[in-house]
Amino acid sequence: MAMRKEDTIKLVSAEGFEFVIDRKAAVVSDTLKSMLNSTGSNIRDAELGEVKLPEISTPVLEKVCEFFYWSLQFSNGIETEFDIEPEMTSDLMRAANLLHT
User: Fold this and answer.
1) How far, in Å, CA of 65 to CA of 91, rounded?
2) Domain that holds residue 91
């Protein structure tokens, strides 16, 4: 079953790589949730369903997207571990702080 465009969000990394993810996964992030629901300065983001994240590199954003989906599964009672490579820890912490995740 194909997802409708309004059910997805496009996250764009610092290098310009695009991740199209389910809107339900994206709103795990309080920052993305407020950007997408905003009627203020971020209205363009909400209309386009696209959020540029120039502070977050492609590999880190990929891991963040994985976390969003993992978090949705966990909230549904499916307990699994979320693995983080040690060399990525500090970058992921900065991204989590930025995204309020």
Assistant:
1) 14
2) 5-99
Number of domains comprising the chain? 1
Per-residue pLDDT tens digits for 2-28: 557 678 999 999 999 999 999 999 999
Q: Is the pTM of this model over 0.85?
A: no
Angle (nearest 5°) at CA 72 between 66 and 75:
140
DSSP output for the chain? -PPPGGGEEEEE-TT--EEEEEHHHHTTSHHHHHHHH-SSTTHHHHHHTEEE-TTS-HHHHHHHHHHHHHHHHHHTT--------GGGHHHHHHHHHHHT-
Read off the CATH number of the domain in which 88 is found: 3.30.710.10
**Which of these, 59, 58, 53, 65, lies nearest to 98 by C-alpha position?**
53
Query: Could you tell me if 60 and 95 are in contact, meaning their C-beta atoms sit under 8 angstroms apart?
Result: yes
> What residues contact 15, with CB distance under 8 A and at least 6 apart?
57, 58
